[in-house]
Fold each of these.
Amino acid sequence: MAADELIEVIECFSTAEAELARAHLAAEGIDATVAADDIGGMYPGVSAGRIRLLVRSEDVATAKQVLEIE
């Protein structure tokens, strides 16, 4: 596994939920990315599929602890 590989930490029901979790991780110094298909920007905030929160592989354990995920 590459050190800079992105790993899914959680799957969210909305982009707002994912962005809130991303901000929570950022406050703890963990970089995270929200991956969602917003239909090419046609409908911002509306996703056509999965909404995933991704972190670097070395941050997975800490991110899960911060988000209280087992």
Amino acid sequence: MKLIKKINRSYIVFSSVSLIAGLILIYAVMQIIISGETEEVLSMTKESVVANLKKGNEVNFVPYVEVKELTRSNYAKAETFIDTLIYNEQENEYDSFKQLKSVYRFNGKSYLITVRSDNIDPSDIMLSVGLPAFIVLFFMIILSGFFVNRINTSIWKPFYENLEVLKNFKVQDSTKLELKRSEIDEFEYLNKSIAGLTEKIKDDFNKQKEFSENTSHELQTPLAVIKAKVETLLQSNRLGNEEVGHLQSIITTLNRLVRLNKSLNLLNKIESIEYLRKSEYHLSEIVSKKIDEFHEIAETKKLTVTKNIERDISLLINGDLLDILISNLFSNAIKYNVNEGFINFRIDDDNLTIENSGPDPGKDTLKLFDRFEKGSHSADSTGLGLTIVKRICEINHASIKYTYSDQKHFVVIHWDKTG
């Protein structure tokens, strides 16, 4: 969930809970206030009744004021407020009243004074006053939520724009990372930290790249010299069979080191400016070209190579990288196949599928894309072939999937044309 949505959702939940809690609190406070005001009015009414009694005036006004002369003095003198119901014959229902009873003595006589007032139901006031207030507050919350969302969107806009910049950031880019400025101090502090971090990453990458290129270059000459000297020794007639075997083992190891050095050098160069030049290629043409190139090698294992072009794919890609991609996959399909097996290329929509017979790799196929990971039948492999293939796919907006089932290898490459 995006941060803005989470903030807005939290605001709506908090506002709704606050509104409900506020209405409950208002209802409770109104009950207290109404009850207090009613009791005060009843006390004032009682005082008025007492004043009229002193003047000898008739003050009965049923059901609101009732004065009875007492013949016995067993009524408590303390004033009591109670809620009571009185039957209304005209409306045939009970009306709710708040009632005050008190005893007053005057000229040797005792009077029971009862004064009443209509009970005001807080819910009635809530309906007449609270409901309009609730509607007004509700729309104010909605309106303020809209403005809060607009304000949050405006505040966070540079942040999300910078996220897009970072998403497209490539460590090999020569241009400096340009982040959108913001009036928010925290965002500016974050921008400075990110800019400093990316510059350090680029510097470390360039140093590592330079080191790898220098190392690869420096290794080429000694390896070539060693290989030449060993081959010279092999041509000598003074060596026995054991010495020849040792030298042939050395040659095999040297060849593997040469291939490993070339593969590592290729991985280092794969994202350099050398491979950023792109042209349009038709995948069917490249596959047909590679089938012709690898024909003789495939014949050594008596492999049947077929292609099925359901729908051709037009790619904007560097030609050298595309050549390396198809060559590595074709080479693997031949190398890890069985005699009199098959290889089938299928192109449909945005997918290239290479299916070939062969033994179980003996390892999780996902791990074979990692550096130096090899299958159980790949003792002489550098373990970098599929790593190179995967990296080429990544920088060209393509995904690769490798599975094995029913004694068949399946490699599927899908090009995302929206990337």
Amino acid sequence: MRKVLIIMTGGTISMVRSKISGALHPAKLETFKAFIPELFAYDDIHVDILEFHPMLDSSDINPDNWQKMAHAVYDNYNRYDGFVILHGTDTMSYSGSALSFMLDGLQKPVVFTGSQLPIGVLRSDAKENLLTAIEIAAAKDEEGNAIVPEVTVFFEDRLFRANRTTKKNAEHFSAFNSYNYPPLAKAGVHITYQPHLVNYSPMDMPLKLHDKTDCNVVVLKLFPGISEVVVRTILHIKGLRGVVLETYGAGNAPSAKWLYRQLKRAVDRGIIIVNKTQCSTGSVDMGLYEVSQNLLKAGVLSGYDITTEALLTKMMYLFGEYPDNHAEVQSLLQKSLCGEMTIE
């Protein structure tokens, strides 16, 4: 019998509505189980549940909670065939991206899922999302190996690589999308997997946990009319180590001399700046247009087609893992570590 561990962190999927006030609040574990008895009706999958205390709204999730999730997987790794993490939707892509870097050499599925409506609501999408996520977490090929041994997000009927996802909708059941990478599986009457799209770690590679993070990073989003004082203030934040520079189109920025000057000075001070397009789809191509030449001259790195969520968490992971090795961080930011970006 295959074994799956559900790690309940909180979020809408784990909430019920108060009969008195009508407000949503976290359900007790027994109440949650009562709403979904199918969890324990599998003939070939045994399900256990590990509950966070306290349960968290995903808006409150931070790197300490990523560490707790990663440790929950790592500490129980040899006891289970796969893991399902129940998580609020608002920051699910951040948590999924973070765990993809923190769990190095993963040979088993770690599937994030949640819902747009609480488990206790009649039309909730919670039950279908959870049950399908469990099947994916337990799925093995004919040789007994996990079909999708990486960190993923399952929502509605699509399984995505977690570090490629972004929450796209606050109301529809199809809450997530992976704009620059195809789904790893589609769920209908059958679950159709795409093994050629999966990122497989070497079979002889043991699981390594990287639980150190450094949060001295920031997102600087360019917009028409942005002033030098705003850019200078952000780039002089005490302790700042990394900047996600959200630019236009294929990685373009204003050609103002002051912007080049501020970016160049920041890079010279040892701050790593990575260019990330504001577009949902597509990749940074610095040098394609004249207005991106100054970024190259200033020493800004290309983020290719990485998401903001993945780039932020990758920076936090790398700065935590290599606190005194600036060159190594720069080098690894230009490499795809676990399928988080496509480098032509």
